[in-house]
Amino acid sequence: MDLPEPRGRPRTAEVLIVLVAVGLLGLLGRLAYIQGAMRPRLEPIVARQQKGQHSLPARRGMILDRRGRILAGSDEAQTVYADPTLIDDLYATAERVAPILDMTAAEVVERIQQAVKKRPGTRYVRLKRHVDEVDGQAVSALRERGIDMQADSRRRYPMGSLACHILGFVGDEGHGLEGVEAQHDQLLAGHNGYVRSVNDAARRWIWLRPDGYRPPRDGRHVVLTIDATIQSIVETELADAVGKYNAPSGVAIVLAPKTGDVLGLACWPKYDPARPQDSPKGARRNQALTDPVEPGSTFKPFIAATAIHEEAVRWNENIFCENGMFMMGRRRILDMHAYGGLPFETVIVKSSNIGMAKIGERLGNERLHAAVRNFGFGETTGIDLIGEGPGIVRRFSSWTHYSTGSIPMGQEISVTPIQLVRAFSVFANGGLLVQPRVVKSLLDVDGRVIEDRSEPVILRRVLPEPVIRSTRSVLAKVINEGTGRRAQLERWQVIGKTGTAQIARKDGRGYERNAHVASFVCAAPAADPEVAVLVMIHRPKGAVYTGGRVSAPAAKEIVAKSLAYLGVPGDKSAGTHESSRLQVASTAPRQ
Prior knowledge:
By secondary structure, this protein is of the alpha+beta class. It has 20 helices and 21 strands.
């Protein structure tokens, strides 16, 4: 016989059902809260956990010299990074990883902690870039939770510091910061690819997302006008000249006068583009483009040729040089040596300041100013490198009678080295102003030419050819008989001009004492010049400081070695041939 259950006591099953139902309702409510109120905050967290993206870095393009020799390239490397959310014991992990990365454990800990402090929840902290294969394998062998690697590349400069001021360098983020590396950064860098994946909570790859792959597109290549052999010659001779005269800095340039191709360009001091952080910032500045100086007597040929063209003087006309001292108004102008009457061509050969000041008076400021601008001074040359300055040419309205005497002897004006050698190239190429350049062509990843820049850019004709030929003859006499005798060569006739300029005080009041810029600019061979060369040494120390003594010998070596390397035949008879035209050219009518 069954006994009835006592009334008022709930059944156990019913109680359980009610409790389960309440629990389910609570869970549903919590789920609704998570899906609703917490959704905006949780979605980014879930996305970071479930979605992964690994960069596939593009390889940076190469920079080559004009003969295809590699000046800058890239090697495969690795970047080691940490995911702080997966590291259980930060200090123990740091102790194991640091020795491989050539870091201290404290440095690893601090880098991770600082990153987490700045970006709470971050899952990527870069520990070291450009890890080579051996160290990369050592990191992998640790199998350290929270430490991983991704593909990277490392910039290499196989020829060391050669052409550093042209090449520039690449920063930690992989972007060019100076020189060609910066000027053509976008083209060289290419475009990175990626792999996008769906991951589990431990960031382990599960599957590839539908839009999960884009291959990297490697950078394109840049071919320079620079010849590595000529560049090496230029750097060696510049370093020797700077060292011999204990100078703090200097510049040397080799330009192809017919095309504007820069065959070599060096500045001292130089630096290692693979480790730019190890050099002073000033050493990375391309002084050939950025640092204007008074040109001194190297400026005289530009005014002399203009005066011949303007029929203000003839080469064989006698100019009285006042026996070494000339009062131009209240200003006293001196020559290094006392001269009486000199043919105008000898004014250039002997580099008489007084003779040039008198020619300045004949031309007048308006024609002097036009000549300065005609040769490209006071404006950038347009060279395809960043950072070029225009030099300093004051407004014509501010020129005075003082300017009339100063400009013809290279004072009261400042020019950059690239402006000076470009202007002198007018005498070497028949009277044309060309645009200098350092990039010859651009190549795709397979080495095919995609942009040819070999066609010269001619800006304008500066002077007619008869004037150029007669000026060239006078500049040959500067080498054979005048201040440039230390640049004479046995095989080739050189044309050129020396210059010794004082350095202006920073406050604009006169010049520093015993501070000079020694310059020599030249071209060869005289009959048909293939190279124009400038050597400029800043603040040479000692009793010898003139352009003819300090810079001309270095330029001589650069010219001789460059022409021999290029296989240019000798022309020693050309100087006599050119000189024989002097009388005819100097009396020829203006054209």
